[in-house]
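Human: Cast an eye over this sequence-structure pair and say how the chain folds.
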Amino acid sequence: MINASILIADDEEKTRRILQINLQDTYTVHLAKSGREALNIVRTQPVDVILTDLKMPDIDGMEVLLEVQKIARSVPVIIMTAYGTIENAVAMIQQGAFDYIVKPVNLDHLDIALNRALQHVKLIRENDQLRTQLRSIEAMSNILTTNAKMQEILKTVGHVAATNYSVLIEGETGTGKELIARAIHNASTRSSEAFIAVNCGAIPRELLESELFGNERGAFTGANARRIGIFEQANHGTIFLDEIGELPLDLQVKLLRAIEEQVIVRIGGGERIILDLRIVAATNRKLKEEVEANRFRRDLYYRLNVVNILIPPLRERQEDIPVLAQHFLLKHNQTVGRHINGFETNVLTYLKAHRWPGNVRELENIVVRSMVNSRKDYIGIDELPSEFHLQTADEYIPMPSSYQDFLVKKRQIKEKYVKEIEKSFILEGLRNNNWNVSQTARSLDMDRRMLQNMMKELGVKAPEPDSTEDNSA
């Protein structure tokens, strides 16, 4: 390994000095004259291999080994021991030591032992890297997309998951912010720990602080027992603060302190609880604008916004709609209680043309409702909810998928608009003539019988004598 670091722990200065002189040209060498000093170095600096004497006055080699297994388990420990204590060294190997060297140290033997230990470290790290990559692949596998922006977001997720940086996810309601947050957690080294999501806008204001930080018994009226807050529950894992923009200003101060210090105190308590957790926040608001309007603390914004992920709305990811729709269909086939194979081509055209104010969440809802309505192997236009049938006025009119489809839509649109114009035309004439049919026909230069037939066809009726309503069936 290039620039490998060796920690030498021995209470004899002569031994430390000889080993340093012989190793410093090849390795970065740290020296400790006691077991206690060795452990302090392990806690504060990167170390690849530990070479420790068995017999030391304050903390001996066995204690060093056991403590290293708690704080840096992957670091191999080589024991230096005199002939008379080889049995003890063998016992330490049974406790997890990597190897032992007999004192006085034979430098050739030491070189062999160090090379073996460093190969062991390299293998462990390569395996850790492969596991991290596998976690990242598995974490992304349930996020379906062919959109270029989303592909870049997934790359960012993979990169940021390997760090401990705070992440702010922005995007409209239903775009999948929690799905991205879970992917970050699942691809990280914290994946085996808790992922706890809290919607900051869904918890009553008076309960929010207790939910986040916990409380002691008797801290306030109704606090009949100690409550462990979400921050404590998520310790060593990830906490997902959804709709962070809804957090009241006074709680924003306490949240900032908790994130900066990684310490909380339960309401009504005095114990400082040290935390080790990852913060991922999300909002459907434009949080920077909230900062400028003094509705969100600037310092908290920058603390959360170390890495920013902006999820595009579904209307900007039209190529994802067929993939997602098919995924939801397969997902809900068993729940709905039937087997539907897919969608007719013109249905996907309709889906792509929709504005999707509710984004992916709305798409899933529409697919399920269509499946409930369907009695065929493929979902057609008739199975779509009513809002997806012919849309007029300022709504989208989906592009036809064929010439025949074009002719059908043209006729439907023409008929619909003609009827709407006819109805408005007749209603206006009737109102202007106090609903007198003969007088209305004369004013509109129409035959009376023709007017009556049109009223019947369009469902136009004169209002009841006491009614203030205009018309209408």
